[in-house]
Design a protein that fits this description.
By secondary structure, the protein is an alpha+beta fold. Helix content is about 20%, strand content about 30%.
């Protein structure tokens, strides 16, 4: 009787192993292991000049100023006091959008150290004054790049509406 029970036990284990192996093969055949990304160009850095933005964002990059590295910006009220220079601490209120109009991040009266922020923000905020407002359009290469971050997909153009509250 021990032999019969052990035989059935080993037989079931063997079948489970076969089923698991077949399932793994079937699963891996369905998974796209292309680590280079899709072939539709989505794995390329974004270019705001060639993109369409949700109309609610009111963005026309052809009417915006552009930095030498490719950050587009448009000033609202300019504010007053000394201009922001360098990568120090600043207090801001902001909303970050994807080009679809989806908000991926926002904050009110947030103290940030520009040296810890994406290059597009570091560059795009230079020259702002306390009370000043600026709309930034940041290409993915100066944002979160090919990796993306949290709710930001890889190679996404970023749109920030920023108000500088305090420049200490």
């Amino acid at each position: 009787m021990d032999t019969l029970v052990n035989s059935r036990f080993h037989h079931r284990r063997a079948w489970r192993a076969v089923v698991a192996l077949v399932g793994a093969v079937a699963l891996t055949s369905c998974v796209n292991l292309n680590v280079d990304g899709p072939s539709n160009g989505a794995n390329q850095p974004s270019d705001p000049a060639t993109e369409t933005f949700n109309p609610s964002l009111n963005i026309d990059v052809s009417k915006m100023q552009r930095t030498s590295s490719g950050v587009y910006y448009k000033d609202g009220p300019l504010g007053s006091g000394p201009a922001l220079t360098g990568l120090g601490t600043v207090v801001v209120s902001f909303v970050g959008y994807l080009k679809t109009g989806v908000i991926f991040q926002s904050g009110t009266d947030v103290q940030i150290v520009l040296a810890n922020e994406i290059v597009g923000l570091q560059e795009g905020m230079q020259g702002m004054h306390a009370g000043g407002e600026r709309l930034l359009v940041i290409p993915s290469a100066l944002g979160f790049g090919a990796l993306g971050a949290g709710a930001v997909p890889p190679n996404s153009t970023l749109v920030y509406d920023i108000i500088v509250k305090v420049i200490p």
